[in-house]
Specification:
Elements: H1 8-23, H2 31-37, H3 40-58, H4 63-80, H5 82-90, H6 94-105, H7 110-138, H8 146-167, H9 171-200, H10 210-215
Helix pairs in contact: 1-2, 1-3, 1-7, 2-7, 3-4, 3-7, 4-7, 4-8, 4-9, 8-9
């Protein structure tokens, strides 16, 4: 069945609705949306950036091409929010925290770098929520859930290995970081392989990506979080 490509207005309308719904959610992972929505300046900046992201999607004249562009956008947003997620995971303080920001921002003022990184994390995370909603509920993309979640997991592994290796200073830290540091080229290769596979997947795949299939738990599983489906009438 032929499905028309979505207009830019529809993508933005759905995205803004998604942020509003997520902002009212009690789930911790949706807190980023409320932080953006409650700050007029942050919301204005998010709208401008998300508008540019959705322009790249709506510029495609065919729905299958829109799906691929949305997947690309989602994976790029995983990269954009990785720095602050690593900081949260590792709980870095003091000198280590400052070195992390010097690694990515150079000699920029430390306090300013933290503010920029946090604001970017909030906007990127909010846009990532929107790509998940658009892929699952608007475009019904088969890669929207587990394949892209696996990509995010792989990128976190690569980013963690990179940062741990770069921040290691003592002999003990270097010893702990060495195994993953040695795996960094392999992790980067696997990441590129996963990206290419996801981009080449049909909207409704005939079979699952093998990597997802073998990594699925066989016992009791937890239902994935989902925003309520919007009435499009």
């Amino acid at each position: 069945m032929y499905v028309r490509a979505y207009t830019h207005a529809r993508l933005m309308d759905e995205s803004e609705w998604c942020v509003e719904m997520a902002a009212g959610s009690p789930l911790p992972e949706d807190l980023v949306a409320s932080r953006v929505l409650d700050n007029p300046e942050a919301y204005r900046r998010w709208t401008g950036e998300h508008n540019r992201l959705m322009r790249a999607v709506s510029a495609e004249a065919r729905i299958d091409r829109q799906v691929v562009q949305l997947r690309t956008t989602a994976m790029n947003l995983v990269h954009s929010k990785a720095l602050f997620e690593y900081l949260q995971e590792r709980g870095l303080e003091g000198h280590k925290r400052q070195r992390l920001f010097e690694l990515f921002f150079g000699c920029r003022d430390y306090r300013n770098a933290v503010l920029i990184a946090h604001a970017n994390y909030l906007r990127s995370s909010s846009s990532h929520l929107c790509t998940q909603h658009l892929a699952a509920h608007l475009m019904h993309d088969g890669a929207a859930a587990e394949p892209l979640a696996l990509y995010a997991e792989r990128y976190a592994d690569y980013f963690r290995a990179f940062c741990d290796g770069e921040l290691a200073e003592t002999d003990e830290e270097r010893t702990l970081a060495a195994p993953l540091d040695a795996l960094r080229p392999l992790l980067k290769y696997q990441l590129g392989e996963a990206r290419q596979h996801i981009l080449s997947m049909p909207v409704t795949p005939a079979r699952e990506w093998r990597e997802v299939e073998i990594r699925r738990p066989t016992g009791q599983t937890q239902r994935l979080r989902a925003l309520p489906v919007r009435d499009s009438r």
